[in-house]
Amino acid sequence: MKHALIITYYWPPAGGPGVQRWLKFVKYFRQFGVEPIVYAPENPNYPLVDENFSAEIPDDIKIVKHPINEPYRFAKLFSKKKTEKMSSGIISKKDSSAMEKLMLYVRGNFFIPDARVGWVKPSVKFLSQFIAENTVDVVITTGPPHSVHLIGMQLKKELNLKWIADFRDPWTTIHYHKSLRLNKTSARKHKELEASVLKSANIVTVTSPTTKKEFQMITDTPIEVITNGYDILPEITFKLDTAFSISHIGSLLSERNPEVLWKVLNEICTENETFKADLLLQFAGAVSDEVKQSLKKFQLDQNCTFLGYVSHSEALKLQHQSQLLLLVEINSAETRAIIPGKLFEYLAAKRPIIALGPKESDIEEIILETKSGKFFSYWSDAELKIEILKSYEAYKKGKLQIASEGIDKYSRSQLTQRMATLIKDV
Length: 426
Prior knowledge:
Shape: globular
Radius of gyration: 22 Å
Number of domains: 2
Keywords: Transferase
Protein name: Glycosyl transferase family 1
GO molecular function, one term: transferase activity
Organism: Aequorivita marisscotiae
């Protein structure tokens, strides 16, 4: 049995997608000969909380915690709403106030690589003592926040341990990196730290093929793609929505605003009153003001339901009962590597997916491979309109469904088996 020390910022009761990847690995590791030990902050500042995730932690897993000091706590004294949005990743380029610009500048240039960097030194000291007193065969760090990787790098340097660096998202090429108002010195330091981590780790794991290609330009360290996935759950009892529901699960950020879709829906509503009466747009999660304004501009606000953040179990039910599932990624070259975790839960729900994103997105390959829906670029308004009308016609006949295939390899159990193999071979 290999003992793996997993260093993560996000851990239950944190909500959202950041916590799920390693919570699920921990859940299944023992089936594949890995004994997990989790290290997480004692007093974190999580933007989202979902107590339901705590029930998935195996009862006798060793969980070690140590305090963290976070600047977001103090920033809230000046602007609580903006701080919470920034901490959640909602960074608006439109109408940014002087305070918001200042906060972004401070965040980007004084806290490198991120606002949790103050946890690195005390964690290295604490874990050095812990490792001396406990069996640890492999250290695993998972980011973002990428400062967690600096803990792993330092532990490897001081204790000569095997170390796997897991990147749930890219580092310097992630879409919001350019919004941090970095000066030249700070931008260079990010690049240097990224290269140091990639070159120092024994193995790097990433969640998308594009990130692997980007990192291969920086390091010769072995890189493995292990995507996110879905849990095989007991059958969910649900009834399909009677409305022609198009549901988006998760945050819809300011730059993730598919106006091409709103335009197409507006056109169809204008041309077909029955379609307008049947249409229901459902949003579960934070939705930026820009998105809401766009929906109003295209006269769709009366067809919208904003549910806010819902628990994971509620999100799963919503996915199963929706007529169509909407997946949206920012239209940018930097987001081609982003494969949202919800895509895999969408696959498990087996409802047709309408996805929008940049050309050459890794999302498109998975949707085509699994025959789970259709992918469109932001310039495909004619094709998108045809697909929406085709789906609506099938819905009216009670025949809107898909026959997806090959999704088993994205189950959490199979993905954990792959990760366990890396841990044993490192």
